[in-house]
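Hello,

Our lab assistant flagged a job as stuck in the queue for most of the afternoon. It eventually completed. Since we weren't sure the result was trustworthy after the delay, we are filing this so someone can double-check. Below is the sequence as submitted and the structure that was eventually returned. Let us know if re-running is recommended.
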Amino acid sequence: MNKCTERIYNGIVKENPTFILMLGMCPTLAVTTSAINGLGMGLSTTVVLVMSNMLISVLRNIIPDKVRVPAFIVVVASFVTIVQFLVQGFIPSLYDSLGIYIPLIVVNCIILGRAESYASKNSVVPSIFDGIGMGLGFTVGLTCIGIVREILGAGQIFGAQVLPLAENGGFGYTPITIFVLAPGAFFVLACLVAIMNVVRAKAEKKGKPLPAAQGCLAGDCASCGQSSMCTGKVNAASEKKENA
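-- returned structure --
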């Protein structure tokens, strides 16, 4: 498996932001009332991820370490603004549905996390594919949650009625409205994460375990490869605690 393919596999399966790393929970729970909302939010985030990873990778040797986080935020905010205007201009219905959550992509921990842990330390092409992989993983997660919530809460998939509704006391599907409300998002997310854990457990029993997540976002500092800035802060904090 070459490096670019590995980055896509990593984002979709190995370190899926939604089901494995549990990142970006705010838009995950808020906008997935329908599959189209989840797909739209995921693709918008993917575009920002790819473009910001690309530019940050190009500028990685130019941006000083002391201002790298503010610089990353400026880069991400610029691409988010572009995506927001494009969605508002060409898909106004989606823009109205997603609302404030499009501008909030700026502070999505997936974007800043990949900029800090990968794009700022690797070349352009792998960084682009890392953005594609993590973005597609996020899109798959949001779309799956949106599909389950939409079909249970309205009997629809992508706005198309797939379960005939009960009318005038006749036979048919009665929507479970809690699934299009906030509590439904938690229920569906918990069930899908549980299914993912069962799949991982069965794969381990068969001797084909899915690789464990690695890197800064997964708490694996040994394989993270972070710069001395991060390590230095951790060591300094540890020394200060021991001296106290």
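-- support follow-up --
The delay was a queue issue, not a problem with the job. The result is valid. Residues 213-242 have pLDDT under 50 and may be disordered. Residues 124-154 form the longest helix (31 residues).
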